[in-house]
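Why do we bother with holo predictions? Because pocket geometry can differ from the apo form. Keep that in mind while you read this record for pyridoxal-5'-phosphate.
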Amino acid sequence: MAHYTGLIDKYRDRLPVAADTRAVSLCEGATPLIELRNLPALVRKKVRILAKFEGLNPTGSFKDRGMTMAVTRAVEEGARAIICASTGNTSASAAAYAARAGIACFVLIPEGKIALGKLSQAMMHGSVVIQIRGNFDDGMRLVQEVAKAQPVNIVNSINPYRIQGQKTIAFEVIEALGGPPDYHALPVGNAGNITAHWIGYSESAGADTAALRLPEGMRNYRKQKMVERRPIMLGYQASGAAPIVRGRPVENPETVATAIRIGNPVSWQQAVAASRESGGWFAECTDEEILRVQKLLAQTEGIFCEPASAIAVAGLLKDLELGKVGEGSTIVCTLTGHGLKDPDVAIAQSAKPVTVDAELKAIEGVIRQHLPKT
Ligand SMILES: *Cc1c(COP(=O)(O)O)cnc(C)c1O
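The structure, written out:
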């Protein structure tokens, strides 16, 4: 088997790159699809749930799928610098790929509202980090304004190449399962990812979708039918940042799931089109529900994802309970980012370490206290 060199090389004939385009890649993609072994029984449901663990991408989130495309194209077009607004993961990914490409990177982040791991990545990779006294939506507006006059290439998901890269997640799921799942659940923030998932599934089914906005000169990759149908898309938002669920922008979005703390999503209309065409829906979860399921995944399945990612499973469990998702279904949940991104949230909700003297007796005491009963 050939050495895996990233998703552009793997899916070159289904992506808007030339045969000789040199990919800027960190071997992103090819993430595991992990079947949950304990959770279905725990909630007493006969369903098959699989986690597409995007936390195992090179910078720890699915953003790398879009960034390899966006930076590859930027370099090809001769860009000297890229810029993005970010709740954290886009900046981490942009910083890494810019470093790889040898170009400059500017990131706008909301002051004090970005998870520690993500901030450390943007800084360590050498990007210029600009903290704004405002939220993500302010940053997004400013990036679009500044790019009109400055020689910087926007790598937010309004960049169509981002969406093109991210659609490959659907290709991988279909390959792994031999076909699409019945349902695909994921968090919705700026709504680019649900749009990208749906485009990937639609292309694989040889179907058209209103979610696809084709810029000038970009091919439609809908080609020979590879599968017969598309999954039902389930999009989940945090209660404090649920503009699509509520049907209007949220002025001051708030949630512990900072990656989806967005009040006015850029890909709103495309996401609604994707959901509608799939026969799916949007729903919301509270911060308490998100954190409970984040911990449940970590402690019953061994999968440590960040809070925003956990909402995919939290929302699904609610819809299973409501009977909106039936037993016998196969559901894929995209776990968008790694739990290590946000150590503060993890530590705040976990049992504290016990401190003892460096003596055998003390250790044995702790073990006796915590050993499961036989
Ligand atoms: C960016 C991000 C999201 C939201 O994706 P959108 O495409 O903005 O809807 C969800 N979870 C994580 C971890 C993210 O980094």
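The longest strand covers residues 104-110.
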